[in-house]
Design brief:
Layout: H1 2-56, H2 58-62, H3 66-89, H4 120-125, H5 147-178, H6 188-196, E1 211-219, E2 227-235, H7 239-245, H8 247-289
Antiparallel strand pairs: 1-2
Helix pairs in contact: 1-3, 1-7, 1-8, 3-5, 5-6, 5-8, 7-8
């Protein structure tokens, strides 16, 4: 029996080594992906705002002076650069310096949150996995990265990426409203909702990706108790459209999916071996404490 447990523990150790290797590979895949996503995001946002200003609201754009147009374009570039930095910061720390969240069934009991704090802006877009404390050579058990940990890390990265795109969409829409490109009477809450809503295909603005067309009912300033329907075109950045429009981003996503598929298989094998070890240990514990009366 002891030999069987020892064999399973060796298999578990080999799986843990493979999981550690795939963690590094997954981190590198996301680093490469977010790099090209940031570049694609810049290109797609410039294209979307160009179309919105020249095709959606050409009269409003022409009313701007030359200097105001330059200011608007500079602000657009500034906002997208900030979002690119937010994307890069998502993978600034390696996975080995992070710990599973509280729901991880395989979470190590030796970990604790780091005392370091970050600005609120970075916390909003950082995956919700705290840094690990350092482990001294005398620690009885090293902190391990489990398959569950990696899957949660991946989910958090994807969720944070979506939030960054939603925030950038909202910031650009407010900027366009500030420069009187979009109707100034629209409430901020409506613009924010348009930045986050997942629209049907028919709501996209023609064939231009990352734009959303909405029909909005607004009050008529010239007549009391009357309203009119206004067509609203807003920036609505979506990862799926950026990936579809940029082969490099699509290739990066495909590579992540391939690594995730291998991780899922490793995770199933890992859980199976943990279960087998627990059963053998429980059987041995039962026999060691059983005495015939």
């Amino acid at each position: 029996m002891a030999g069987s447990v020892k064999q399973i523990e060796q298999e578990i150790a080999a799986l843990e080594d493979a999981i550690a290797d795939i963690a590094q590979e997954l981190h590198q895949c996301y680093s490469d992906y977010l790099q090209v996503l940031g570049e694609g995001l810049r290109q797609q946002l410039i294209l979307a705002t160009y179309h919105l200003c020249t095709q959606g609201y050409p009269e409003a754009f022409l009313k701007l002076s030359f200097s105001r147009r330059q200011e608007l374009q500079s602000q657009i570039r500034h906002q997208v650069s900030r979002s690119q930095n937010r994307l890069f910061n998502l993978v600034r720390a390696p996975i080995s310096q992070q710990k599973p969240d509280e729901n991880d069934p395989q979470k190590s009991e030796d970990s604790e949150p780091s005392p370091e704090t970050e600005s609120q802006e970075n916390q909003d877009f950082r995956p919700s996995i705290s840094p690990l404390k350092s482990v001294s050579p005398s620690s009885p058990k090293p902190l391990l990265i489990t398959p569950y940990h990696l899957l949660r890390w991946q989910e958090n990265i994807d969720e944070a990426t979506t939030k960054i795109l939603h925030r950038l969409s909202h910031e650009i829409n407010l900027l366009l409203q500030e420069y009187a490109i979009m109707p100034p009477e629209l409430p901020v809450a409506l613009i924010e909702a348009a930045s986050k809503t997942e629209p049907p295909l028919e709501a996209t603005a023609g064939n231009t990706p990352n734009l959303l067309t909405l029909m909005v009912e607004t009050e008529d300033e010239n007549e009391e108790q009357t309203s009119r329907v206004t067509q609203l075109i807003t920036v609505h950045l979506r990862i799926s459209e950026i990936e579809f429009s940029d082969p490099r981003v699509m290739a990066g996503r495909q590579k992540i999916r391939q690594v995730a598929k291998r991780l899922n298989q490793l995770g199933r094998n890992y859980q199976k071996k943990l279960r087998e070890r627990a059963v053998l240990q429980a059987e041995a514990a039962w026999r060691s404490s059983w005495f015939d009366e």
